[in-house]
């Protein structure tokens, strides 16, 4: 039996930028160990597995090459793109996803794909032993979210120059570390990078779920509800965010770069 599979560059308006995600639409739920093996074979940050329910909504799960994760923005954006592109969803029809992080939604909005995700506001903490040393920077603020540590640095140039000690970051016992600063470019409100060696990803190119923390954090600091972030990885990507109380709206583009079939 053959299974369709796609690779999509998410938070990207051209191929080979943004964050690549695997998308695997399924007729029925699959064995967890099989999905993990497929994700390992795809070897991108996350591969999404999506199954349509009788009521028209979807079950959605995400796997890195080594673990299943509780929330993934770019693979949800990629999945939504494929559902519209292949005609599973009609133009203008919203997607509703049942996930380990509750009900998520996606819609086509103002030329973008907009995701409706739970906010994950950070709360201040003392830096754990080894965090700042592993990043090689002085922090102006350290906080923790449901999944990650968040560290604000003094400038965008500091963010761009970080060369982390991934072995030490892996020992922190969290999914990852978000580093962020105000943007020097007036086109963006803030910049960030995301390191997740604990989830098998040293640096994630563009991280939707990290912006569930970045949106409420920068909204409070800048006094703005709608903002634009740039994730300054090698591939780079733009995420439009809207802080909406207990929810965050994330918007971006996506481009399909590969279509294929799994033989097993």
CATH arch. level architecture of the largest domain: Roll
Measured on Cα atoms, how large is the radius of gyration?
18 Å
- For this structure, the CATH topology of the largest domain is Diaminopimelate Epimerase, Chain A, domain 1
**In total, how many domains does the architecture comprise?**
2
SSE string, helix = H, strand = E? EEHEEEHEEEEHEEHHEEEHEEEE
Provide the structure class: alpha+beta
Question: Uncertain segments of ≥5 residues (pLDDT<50)?
Answer: none
Our estimate of the beta-strand percent is 35-45%
CATH superfamily label of the largest domain: Diaminopimelate Epimerase, Chain A, domain 1
Fraction of residues in helices? 10-25%
Largest sheet: 18 strands, mixed
Separate helix tally: 6
Distance between the termini: 6 Å
Q: Tell me, what is the CATH class of the largest domain?
A: Alpha Beta
Topology, please?
Blueprint: E1 3-10, E2 19-26, H1 32-42, E3 46-52, E4 58-63, E5 68-69, H2 73-85, E6 95-99, E7 102-109, E8 112-118, E9 123-124, H3 131-135, E10 141-144, E11 148-152, H4 156-161, H5 166-170, E12 176-182, E13 190-196, E14 201-204, H6 211-222, E15 226-231, E16 237-244, E17 247-252, E18 254-262
Parallel strand pairs: 2-3, 4-6, 11-12, 13-15
Antiparallel strand pairs: 1-2, 1-18, 3-4, 4-5, 6-7, 7-8, 8-17, 9-10, 10-11, 12-13, 13-14, 15-16, 16-17
């Amino acid at each position: 039996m053959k299974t369709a599979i796609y690779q999509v560059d998410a938070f990207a308006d051209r191929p080979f930028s943004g964050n690549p995600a695997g998308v695997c639409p399924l007729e029925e739920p699959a064995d967890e160990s099989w999905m993990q093996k497929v994700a390992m074979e795809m070897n991108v940050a996350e591969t999404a597995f999506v199954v349509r329910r009788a009521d028209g909504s979807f079950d959605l799960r995400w796997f890195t090459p080594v673990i299943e994760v509780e929330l993934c923005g770019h693979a949800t954006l990629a999945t939504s793109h494929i559902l519209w592109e292949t005609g599973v969803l009609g133009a203008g029809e919203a997607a509703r996803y049942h996930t380990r992080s509750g009900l998520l939604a996606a819609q086509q909005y103002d030329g973008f794909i907009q995701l409706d995700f739970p906010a994950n506001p950070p709360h201040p903490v003392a830096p754990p032993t080894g965090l700042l040393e592993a990043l090689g920077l002085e922090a102006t603020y350290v906080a923790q979210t449901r999944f990650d540590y968040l560290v604000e640095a003094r400038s965008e140039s500091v963010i761009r120059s970080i060369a982390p000690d991934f072995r030490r970051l892996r020992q922190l016992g969290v999914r990852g570390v978000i580093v962020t600063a105000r943007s020097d470019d007036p086109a963006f409100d803030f910049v960030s990078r995301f390191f997740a060696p604990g989830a098998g990803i040293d640096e994630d190119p563009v991280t939707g779920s990290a912006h569930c923390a970045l949106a409420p954090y920068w909204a409070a600091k800048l006094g703005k509800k709608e903002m634009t972030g740039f994730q300054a990885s090698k591939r780079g990507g733009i995420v439009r965010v809207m802080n909406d109380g207990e929810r965050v709206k994330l918007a971006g583009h996506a481009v399909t770069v590969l279509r294929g079939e799994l033989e097993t």
